[in-house]
Every structure is written in structure tokens, then in C-alpha cells.
Specification:
By secondary structure, this protein is of the alpha/beta class. Helices cover about 30% and strands about 30% of the residues. A hairpin with a 2-residue loop joins strand 4 and strand 5.
């Protein structure tokens, strides 16, 4: 299933899909960058995006949406609004992912995990581990953009597949061409 709108064009128009020469948080270089907060900051864009993720999992009857702080909080809340469920989020406490603020999951919960941009899938795996430990049923993983092949052992649906091309600095064609490197710093802002 694809989104019922041209998501790539919408993201480009909002400056969420950048083309250039970027330093990734991994230290590698890439010619494209997803500036996810250009999606998350705009309710008129996030609303239909979250609605499309919710629609993809409505038949699974989730009872709660779980996401990872910080970007996932806004997306999770908006998906939950469409599904009429609770939304809780995982955050780090002394570096350890955990449910704080009295958030809880129990064995009768049916959990949809959502993430804005899935690249390596590390933060999704951290959330899934907490869901599994609670005894709740994981019904799926929904994402806005998927940048790599990931297998979470459960049905995963992304609205847009945008495979990441990245290079070691020593092998980067744009470095070789002398193009200036930009640091969009999504994890540092
Ligand atoms: Zn480079």
C-alpha cells in the first residue's frame, strides 16, 4: 500500500527531503538527507501522514501506540489520535531506554510501534524490546520513511522507501569533486 497522496513531493516542498552533500550522524557522507522535523512541525502535513500509517494498521486493532522520544512523541500521538488509542513513548534514563512518567503496557495491550525515519532500526528495536518484556502483543511497526532494509520480525509498513546511499569520507564521490560538506545534525539539535 502506498500513501493516498504524493508524499515525496509533499516532503520536498516542505524542505524535508534535501539533496546535497551531508554528514550523517554515523560519520558517513550521503547525497540525500531527511530533515524529519520539517514533517513533524507541520500539523497539516503530519495529520494525513499519521492517518495513512493508522489506516495501514487499523485492522490489527491496536490498543496503544508506542514510539521513541523525541520525534516519535509527536508522530505517535497523531497516529493514536486517528486510531483512538493511547500513545506512550520510550525515553532514555541514564542511557537506558525505558517507559517513564507512569506509562505502562500490559499483556492485554496490542501495540503499534511507530517511528518517523527508520534507517538502521536501532531505536525501533529498543522500543520493541520494552514491548516484548511487558507481555503485550506487538502488531506491527509503522514508519514515515524507511532508508534501509530492516527486519523487526513483525509486519513493517513505511509510507516512503528512500534507500540510503552513504559513503565513507575516503570514498565519497562528492568529497572527490570538492563539494562542501553540510552537517544537518538531526541528532545534535
Ligand atoms: Zn563527502
Amino acid at each position: 500500500m502506498t500513501a493516498p497522496f504524493d508524499l515525496a513531493a509533499m516532503l520536498e516542498r516542505r524542505g524535508a527531503l534535501l539533496e546535497g552533500h551531508f554528514l550523517l550522524s554515523s560519520g558517513r557522507h550521503s547525497d540525500r538527507f531527511v530533515q524529519k522535523f520539517r514533517i513533524l512541525e507541520e500539523p497539516s502535513l503530519l495529520g494525513p501522514v499519521a492517518g495513512a500509517i493508522a489506516a495501514a494498521f487499523a485492522a490489527d486493532r491496536p490498543s496503544v501506540v508506542v514510539s521513541a522520544a523525541v520525534g516519535g512523541i509527536v508522530l505517535g500521538y497523531e497516529v493514536a489520535r486517528h486510531l483512538e488509542t493511547r500513545a506512550v513513548f520510550v525515553e532514555k534514563e541514564r542511557g537506558v531506554p525505558t517507559l517513564r512518567r507512569g506509562f505502562s503496557l500490559n499483556e492485554s495491550d496490542r501495540v503499534l510501534v511507530v517511528e518517523d525515519v527508520v534507517t538502521t532500526g536501532t531505536s525501533v528495536r529498543e522500543v520493541i524490546e520494552i514491548v516484548r518484556a511487558s507481555g503485550a502483543t506487538l502488531v506491527g511497526v509503522g514508519a514515515i520513511v524507511r532508508r534501509g532494509a530492516v527486519d523487526f520480525g513483525v509486519r513493517t509498513h513505511a509510507l516512503l522507501d528512500l534507500p540510503l546511499r552513504s559513503y565513507d569520507a575516503a570514498e565519497c564521490p562528492q568529497c572527490a569533486a570538492g563539494e562542501p560538506l553540510h552537517d544537518p545534525g538531526s541528532r545534535r539539535v
